[in-house]
Specification:
Structural class: alpha/beta
Shape: globular
Largest sheet: 5 strands, parallel
Number of helices: 13
Radius of gyration: 20 Å
Distance between the termini: 37 Å
Strand order of the largest sheet: 5-6-7-8-9
Number of strands: 12
């Protein structure tokens, strides 16, 4: 529904409320570099003088990080208060205010949270889904299920893989690798293959768990298994190492969830550090950062997938030139009144939502508010 023809350009930033929530993960994250059972979320409500509220959330991995992130968000909103809600301009102003502490890390994460909420407010005021405001249309986006298949014993993975496919008619799954014994990783891939068949695409992710020597050995061991991609075998900022791997491997090499801003993506492509990219919304710079990064990936012809934030991801994938795969995980669903629907492996941007359309389930929020 619209707001009775309010002029989009007439919104003025009034304030911001950021609340810390911690949710229990149904399937805990067990990766080579971390185990996470409790998932932190910062819920952002950006208010305007005209009465429209824009919403977004951030998932900063570490619960303690919310202690620093929330004051940053509040400070940015205070600094930008009274300004016209023009996301490109707010993005520039917010980033310029952080010159001296650096653009990356928590600085960028705070700017991204603000940016996603600002775009949501604009599209809500226009009465349009965000994808339509950006010049696209609502519809389906191809998704893979990223909800499980962590570093469990291989014999437990078959049943879980079958359950993950059934969760939404998925034809693609992500499996985590990086067990101590390479043979156990091979057994894990085999167990999942047996359970889901040859047609289901399998992406694998080492979560930055290997050094370059291990990565050279272990990626070659799995290079002829028909995997959709090999993701982040080594630490995220070692572009030289990634370039060496990309040159040697036949399987597409996927990186990007740790790009801080569009220029990181540009640098990775210039260095031939990957075949595929998958920026994360809180690190790439929200919707503004994504749009700029998507132009770079589009010019290079590099397929672009998403990392976390499935709702805003679906909206922007509808206007992304080289849109590839949406990473589907439902970790924020417990605090959402109306999660987007998934069917036949397609994630649907609803026709009847304005903006990104997040509405908090306030009872669930109250029950899971974190005491920082």
């Amino acid at each position: 529904g619209g707001t009775g023809g309010m002029k989009v350009e007439s919104l003025t930033l009034q304030g911001l409320r950021a609340r810390p929530v911690v949710l229990k993960l149904e399937r805990p994250v067990v990766a080579r570099i971390a185990t996470i059972t409790d998932w932190p979320l910062v819920l952002i409500d950006l208010t305007t003088e005209e009465g429209v509220t824009g919403r977004s959330y951030l998932e900063p991995y570490s619960i303690k990080a919310m202690r620093y992130l929330i004051p940053m968000l509040e400070d940015l909103a205070e600094a930008l208060k009274g300004r016209r809600l023009a996301p490109f301009e707010l993005y520039e102003a917010a980033r310029k205010s952080l010159h001296f502490v650096g653009y990356e890390g928590l600085s960028m994460i705070a700017v991204s949270g603000l940016d996603m909420a600002a775009w949501d407010a604009l599209a809500r005021a226009a009465g349009l889904p965000l994808c339509s405001l950006l010049g696209g249309s609502p519809g389906a986006v191809r998704a893979y299920n990223s909800n499980g298949l962590w570093l469990k014993p291989p014999e437990e993975l078959g049943a879980e893989a079958a359950a993950l496919c059934a969760e939404g008619g998925f034809e693609a799954l992500k499996l985590r690798l990086g067990r101590d014994r390479p043979g156990d990783d091979l057994a894990a891939i085999e167990a999942v293959r047996r359970a889901v068949g040859e047609e289901v695409k399998l992406m694998v992710d080492f979560n930055q768990g290997l050094d370059l020597a291990d990565a050279l050995e272990r990626c070659h061991q799995i290079d002829d298994l028909g995997l959709a991609w090999i993701e982040e075998p080594i630490v995220y900022d070692n572009f030289d190492g990634f370039a060496q791997l990309a040159a040697e491997l036949r399987t597409p090499l996927q990186i990007g969830e740790n790009f801080y801003g569009p220029r990181d993506l540009h640098k990775a492509l210039q260095m031939k550090a990957c075949d595929l990219v998958m920026p994360d919304f809180m690190r790439i710079g929200g919707v503004t950062g994504w749009l700029r990064a998507a132009a770079i990936a589009g010019a290079a012809g590099i397929p672009m997938s998403t990392h976390l934030y499935p709702e805003v991801a679906a909206q922007v994938m509808r206007v992304t030139e080289t849109a590839h795969w949406l990473e589907w995980q439902n970790w924020a669903d417990p605090i959402l009144q109306r999660p987007y629907e998934i069917k036949d492996g397609l994630f649907q941007v609803p026709e009847d939502l304005a903006g990104v359309g997040l509405e908090w389930d306030e009872a669930a929020v109250a029950a899971n508010l974190a005491d920082l």
